[in-house]
Every structure is written in structure tokens, then in C-alpha cells.
């Protein structure tokens, strides 16, 4: 998430006792910043998140996909991302339900976003035959097949979706929901009964992040995998089962090897604290946590995608991912 810097005088007007419960996405800058981050990760420019050669190529491909997301936001008309009627949004808020739920009927304009993303990638496909094949397959899907793929992506099902198709479908859905989420008023959105799902759309978080700056200083937020909204959750609490006991933090040792509990380090810019896995021995799951105090430009989704080495090592230790990353289809052959 890209944060707006406060102007002189604004800081003094803040209520520093209030924790912002919800941070809505800055949709028109988020994807551009994410693409830049993905390329930095692919080039091994981010200390604390080592990337191998094979993954590097995939990250560069996803950076191109994220560039396409940014481009369609600039080119498609605003009505593509129109919000539901005000009465429906208010009813959801009154009942502590997501105002933009991913369940149920989708706005048909999401398919316009999908087509536009594929069009943006055509120039790249001219020099990458494998991408050209995937784009042709995606264009050959009829409406029922495409909607079925979207259902599977949003439900994180491995059945009914091709692992090479899923990131492109997910990318269109992300644009649709992120643009709509950015139009809401954060104070109006109410928390859900469970704090483990996005209060805007009801999706799972992709990862969590410790933010710096303004009223968010030092607080932990979960970032939605679909609409990119971030909502507050206290630190040292499982983001899957909400247990506050048996929580540990694992990081990759500088020389590689098994993950080890990260010891407290007070100094900023510590590479070992940029990316960690928050593990829970009650539900035996984990979700990654990224720390802006140690890298100002962390992007939870991009950094999660690039830190697959941490997934492998924590998985070998017996923990399961609490939820997936929409740009990589886990558990698919």
C-alpha cells in the first residue's frame, strides 16, 4: 500500500491516541509501486529477501502483469468501477457485513478489466511464446468458464482453475475490488465479527505489515489479497485463529538453512526483520509479516511472493500457510 505523506501542520492535528482501524488503498499509485518493488526483488536488491534465478524470472513476469493492472486503471472509464447502490452498502455496514463482498454476483464489468489486462500484455507476448500461449488460452474461455475460474480464484480452490490462468484472472479481480474499495469512506466501514477477514470485501489477508508514519506508527495491519485494504490487528496474535499464545516469529538465517526465531533487534534497517513468518502452535498455520521499520518500501503481496524460501522452510517445520497469494497458485501441480 502506498501511503500519503503528511504535510507540515497536519501532524499536529492528529489524534495520536486513535488507531486507524482501516487503511483504504491508494489504487492509482499502488500497482505502479508494486511493479517497481517486484523488479527490485527480482534483481536481488532487497536485503533480507533472497531470490533465486528461477523465481526471478517469475517475479519479472508478475511485474509486467502488475504494470498492466496500473495501465487499465488509467485507461478504463470510471464507470467500470462503479460502487453498488448506496442503500446496499449501508445495509451491509449496518449489519457488520463487507460492503463489497467477493461472494455473490460480481459486476460484469470485471470482464472488461480482464480483457484490457490481456491487451496490455500483447506487446510482451510477441517476444515470449509461453506467455502468448497462456493469453490465447485465456481468450478462448467462454463466459461460463471465465466466471467459474473467478469463483475458484476468490474461494482459493485448486480445482476448476489452471494454475497458469489464475494469476491473470486474480489480477483483474484485484483491480476491480481495489478501485472500488478506494472510493469508500474508511470511518463508515464496520469491523466484521471475525477480525481475520477483510472488513471491506470479506477476503483473506495475504500477509501482515508493521506500518510507520502518522497515526499508524508501529501498528500491525493485515492486507487483503483482493482489494488491498489494510485493517488493524494487534501484534503477537494469530491472524488465522486469533490465539495470543504460542506465537513465534521465524526468519531465514543470513547463511540460509532452517528458519530460527528472530531475536529482538532495536535498530532500524535490519534485513533479518524485513520478512518473517508468524507461526501459531495452536492452529499450526503461519502468515508472513513484513516490517516497514526495516524497509520503508515493503509491499506485503510482492514481498510475500518473493519470499518463497521462507515458505519452504517454515513448511518443512510443520506449519501450513493460512492463505495463498493471488499471483501464485499454491498447492497446484
UniProtKB/TrEMBL annotation:
Write down the InterPro entries for this protein, in alphabetical order. Answer: FdhE-like_sf, FdhE_C, FdhE_central, FdhE_N, Formate_DH_accessory
Q: Which residues form the FdhE central domain?
A: 197-235
Question: Domain FdhE C-terminal, which positions?
Answer: 236-328
Principal place where this protein is found? cytoplasm
Any one GO CC term of the record: cytosol
Superkingdom of the source? Bacteria
Compartments it resides in: Cytoplasm
The FdhE N-terminal domain covers which part of the protein? 19-192
Query: Has the keyword Cytoplasm been applied to this entry?
Result: yes
UniProt keyword Cytoplasm, yes or no: yes
Write the record's keywords in alphabetical order, separated by commas: Cytoplasm
Listed GO MF terms: ferric iron binding
For this entry, list what GO says about its biological process: protein maturation
What does the UniProt function comment say about this protein? Necessary for formate dehydrogenase activity.
- Alphabetized NCBIfam families for the sequence: FdhE
- Tell me the protein family, please: Belongs to the FdhE family.
In terms of PANTHER family, this protein maps to: PROTEIN FDHE (PTHR37689)
Q: What is this protein called?
A: Protein FdhE homolog
This protein's species is Duganella sacchari
Amino acid at each position: 500500500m502506498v501511503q500519503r505523506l503528511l504535510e507540515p501542520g497536519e501532524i499536529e492535528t492528529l489524534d495520536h491516541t486513535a488507531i486507524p482501524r482501516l487503511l483504504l488503498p491508494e489504487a492509482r499509485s499502488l500497482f505502479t509501486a508494486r511493479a517497481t518493488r517486484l523488479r527490485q526483488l527480482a534483481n536481488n536488491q532487497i536485503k533480507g529477501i533472497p531470490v533465486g534465478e528461477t523465481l526471478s524470472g517469475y517475479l519479472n513476469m508478475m511485474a509486467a502483469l502488475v504494470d498492466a493492472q496500473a495501465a487499465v486503471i488509467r485507461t478504463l472509464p470510471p464507470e467500470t468501477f462503479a460502487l453498488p447502490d448506496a442503500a446496499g452498502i449501508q445495509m451491509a455496514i449496518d449489519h457488520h457485513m463487507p460492503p463489497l463482498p467477493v461472494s455473490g454476483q460480481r459486476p460484469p464489468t470485471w470482464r472488461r478489466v480482464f480483457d484490457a489486462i490481456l491487451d496490455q500484455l500483447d506487446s510482451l507476448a510477441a517476444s515470449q511464446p509461453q506467455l502468448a500461449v497462456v493469453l490465447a488460452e485465456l481468450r478462448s474461455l467462454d463466459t461460463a468458464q471465465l466466471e467459474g475460474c473467478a469463483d475458484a480464484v476468490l474461494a482459493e480452490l485448486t480445482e476448476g482453475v489452471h494454475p497458469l490462468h489464475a494469476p491473470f484472472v486474480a489480477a483483474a479481480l484485484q483491480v476491480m475490488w481495489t478501485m472500488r474499495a478506494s472510493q469508500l469512506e474508511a470511518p463508515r466501514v464496520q469491523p466484521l465479527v471475525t477480525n481475520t477477514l477483510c472488513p471491506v470485501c470479506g477476503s483473506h489477508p495475504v500477509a501482515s505489515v508493521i506500518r510507520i508514519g502518522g497515526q499508524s506508527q508501529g501498528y500491525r495491519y493485515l492486507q487483503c489479497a483482493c482489494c488491498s485494504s489494510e485493517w488493524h490487528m494487534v501484534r503477537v496474535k494469530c491472524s488465522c485463529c486469533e490465539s495470543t499464545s504460542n506465537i513465534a516469529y521465524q526468519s531465514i538465517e543470513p547463511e540460509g538453512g532452517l528458519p530460527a526465531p528472530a531475536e529482538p533487534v532495536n535498530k532500524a534497517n535490519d534485513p533479518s526483520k524485513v520478512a518473517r513468518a508468524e507461526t501459531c502452535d495452536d492452529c499450526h498455520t503461519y502468515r508472513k509479516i513484513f516490517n516497514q521499520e526495516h524497509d520503508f518500501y515493503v509491499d506485503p503481496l510482492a514481498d510475500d511472493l518473493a519470499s518463497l524460501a521462507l515458505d519452504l522452510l517454515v513448511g518443512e517445520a510443520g506449519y501450513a500457510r493460512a492463505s495463498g497469494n493471488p499471483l501464485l497458485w499454491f498447492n497446484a501441480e
